[in-house]
Design a protein that fits this description.
The protein has 441 residues and is mostly helical. It contains 15 helices and no strands. The two termini are 26 Å apart.
Length: 441
């Protein structure tokens, strides 16, 4: 994001954790995970509101904490997409609604033992159920689909696709971020955090099977991210070379390609081999580039390209499981041994995972479209045009994130006079004088 909106996006990232914790504690976890006493398939959970039914075991508490982190992740995907023009009230509303109801229902259907398409039953749908180990679909597609709906209804930032008179620009404006260094740091932090999500989804390392699964997840996660990074960056370079004859290497493509690879491997990190992880990562880089360009063509403004990274590559990750799942690894990870297409599977696993894509899209679009439309109609969604132009830090957060002011010109001149009286004539350094003049101006 730009310098004028730094405080705003930082606060929203902080509140993602806070809102996610409150929403998932009060009702979200209860909707996501019911008890399995009835042994029947259900649409939504109905137990453990406010965690009141917990027996106090360590497994219960850490289970809630781990799942809360996934819920907060789904919410924070949206914050990046609608950055720089979304009202705080709207942000808080959708964050609580997403983590408290929309996301938990998706979780219940796929990860709960009571879910209607879960793999964690003795009688899973189609004999296999949906295999989404760490959430390419459950987490990333849900957040990405919400972001897509929000971006369409909210509209693009001022000056992105249209001029001041509302005429389409021949070339969309690319708004430079305030700190590329922080972007790179954020990418590394996310990559590191993924080793908690993917290997951590083994949930425990208490036998050789779970240890093998967690270790494999670390390897496949690393390889997919690396291949996604290289794939996106060099593919973009080759496209530029073919169209302009020039060659450059885009850091943004590299960073988002790596994140796309991470999202793409998340569903199958425990059930695919390292060579398959490389292929998944390479294709993830291409998926990111293609969907990013598609959004621009459709004039859908995604401030941080979260939709191509999370929604598009979330879909690819779920599909990839149906292609590359290795039967022995499936069994080790706690699933049955249905193989992917490339291991002789007849398509049952691919069908289940495809149905999960359709289900997630339908559920999210059905709920979030009217939700955002109502917010927009009430004038609660987008900030005022002048506030957007000035920046949300000044208009909403009591001032800019960075103090860019320098010394006053008269103070610099006084300092030089004092020094001159002690040491003879002292000239003001050019850069000091320029900074003082800019401050005075």
């Amino acid at each position: 994001v730009r310098q004028k909106n730094v405080k705003n996006i930082m606060l929203k990232n902080l509140l993602d954790a806070c809102g996610g914790a409150i929403g998932f504690y009060t009702i979200g976890y209860a909707f996501a995970y019911a008890d399995n006493a009835s042994d029947s398939k259900t649409f939504i959970g109905n137990k453990n509101f406010l965690l009141l039914s917990f027996e106090g075991s360590g497994g219960d508490w850490i289970g809630w904490f781990f799942q809360f982190a996934f819920a907060a992740t789904a919410a924070t995907i949206v914050a990046g997409t609608v950055a720089e023009r979304c009202q705080m009230a709207a942000y808080l509303a959708y964050s609580l609604f997403l983590t408290g109801f929309v996301y938990p229902v998706v979780v219940h259907s796929i990860w709960s033992g009571d879910g209607w398409i879960t793999a964690f039953r003795d009688d899973p749908w189609q004999g296999v159920g949906v295999v989404d180990f760490a959430g390419s679909g459950v987490v990333h597609m849900t957040g990405g689909a919400t972001a897509l709906v929000a971006a369409i209804i909210l509209g693009p930032r001022k000056g992105r696709f249209y001029d001041e008179d509302g005429n389409p620009l021949e070339t969309p404006n690319n708004f430079a971020p305030h700190s590329v260094a922080l972007q790179v740091l954020g990418t590394f932090i996310l990559w590191f955090g993924w080793f908690g999500f993917n290997p951590g989804s083994a949930l425990a390392i208490d036998n050789s099977g779970s240890a093998e699964t967690a270790a494999l997840c670390a390897v496949t996660t690393t390889l997919a991210a690396a291949c996604g990074c290289v794939s996106a960056m060099f593919t973009d370079t080759m496209i530029e070379k073919s169209s302009t004859g020039e060659v450059s290497y885009d850091l943004t493509m590299a960073m988002n390609g790596a994140l796309g690879g991470l999202v793409g491997i998340t569903a199958g990190c425990s059930v695919v081999t390292p060579w398959a992880a490389c292929i998944i990562g390479i294709i993830a880089g291409w998926v990111y580039i293609g969907f990013s360009k598609f959004l621009i063509k459709m004039k859908i403004d995604d401030a941080v390209d979260a939709i191509p990274v999370h929604f598009a590559n979330g879909m690819w990750g779920v599909i990839a499981v149906g292609l590359f799942a290795e039967p022995d690894l499936m069994a080790t990870a706690g699933y049955n041994d249905f193989p992917g297409i490339f291991y002789g599977g007849k398509g049952a696993l691919l069908l289940c995972n495809f149905v999960s894509i359709v289900w997630i899209c339908a559920w999210v679009f059905f709920l979030m479209t009217p939700f955002f439309v109502i917010l927009n109609a009430l004038g609660m969604f987008r900030v005022d045009a002048l506030e957007e132009e000035v920046g949300l830090d000044i208009s909403h957060h009591r001032g800019a994130a960075y103090d860019m002011s320098g010394a006053k010109k008269e103070d610099v001149e006084e300092l030089m006079e004092v020094r001159a009286s002690k040491h003879g004539k002292v000239e003001v350094p050019k850069e000091v004088a320029n900074a003082a003049e800019e401050t005075t101006a």
